[in-house]
Amino acid sequence: MSEVEDFLSKEDEKVIVEAIRKAEKTTSGEIRVHLEPTTDEDPLKHAADVFHELGMDQTEARNGVLIYIAVEAHKFVIYGDKGIYEKVPHDFWDSTRDEMQLYFRNGHFREGIIAGVLHAGEQLQKYFPWDRNDANELSDEVSRG
Known about the structure:
Order of helices and strands: HHEHEEHHHE
Structural class: alpha/beta
Number of helices: 6
Radius of gyration: 14 Å
Strand order of the largest sheet: 3-2-1-4
CATH topology: Diaminopimelate Epimerase, Chain A, domain 1
């Protein structure tokens, strides 16, 4: 088995999906988690490519967020769509990244991803609050590449 297959158990993924659903109950933003072994590209550029491959740039408010993790390379990126960057400060994701890193450094990947997802939801709520007409536009499942 590869590191990606061993990175999260089925139970871990289930709990992460529940965290995504919980976060999305407070915001119209859409959050996804994507795992890959590694990338030869700059992780930010590659996360942008994955973001588009997953169709995350198709949301009505352009407020999708991808938490991209290159497991074997020990790198991760939080990538948001242009609707987010039109409204938020430049350092918007820094606190989410920092919180995730605290967990990751200690090998607590499931907890780090959950913390990142929930923090992203809290941050997005300020700019993209949930309303009753909000529809879940993207899958909540953890994707793999």
